[in-house]
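Deliverable D4.2, example record:
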Amino acid sequence: MPTIFVGHGSPMIALEDNNITKQFGSIGRNIIERYGRPKGILMISAHWYTSGTLIESAEEPQQIYDMYGFPHDLYKVRYRVQGSSELTNRVKELLSDEVSTNDEWGIDHGAWTILVHMFPAADIPVVQLSVDRNLTEAEAFEMGRKLSVLREEGYLIVCSGNIVHNLTLVDWSNAGGSQLADDFDDVVKSIVLSGDYSTLINGIERRSDYNYAVPTKDHFYPLLYILGASEGSTAQVFNNVRNIGSISMTSYLFE
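Output generated by the structure prediction step:
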């Protein structure tokens, strides 16, 4: 299986029909056509940001509407999936004492707003793994590397976040990105496409624009997990877009 990093942006993406959502749909269809239907999806979403690494085990994980003040229609979107005890147990085998089972969360909007376009039938089991705030960049990358064997076993690893994610400095009058957002996104893109991830793992935080792009690490860390799981693969960029000034939708498919 390939791996995917998705820039998810606003939850309203679940209701939209535009070039970004069309790309999500195209990626999902192409995966099924080229690789077959995944046995399950391991989803690592920025919105399950925890102390320690947690894995779901519920047979029917709840759909979480972890956003507030949006139009009523968004809360009527249904993406109900099955869990997978096989995938949960495999992740626990791979991560051993680094992971604990926890079913207090569910499938949050960092996951279902994307998957509703990629796999609209909701017929592929989904298990969510949390983003561990206690890990260093190198440790997040290494955890992704430990999970990479899942690809050979027919599982799709999807990480959902944003390379640039600064909600305090959004510019509603800007349909694109600020200069700082564009510059940081371009630097990360050149590193990802080079296949040499060392600069991202060791030293990206020393850039002068890092605190603007990554004021908190919850949305950036999913990229590090997916790079670890994708080591040696070729990256393709899709949805190369910044919007409302300080949000990057830039996404990657690794094959």
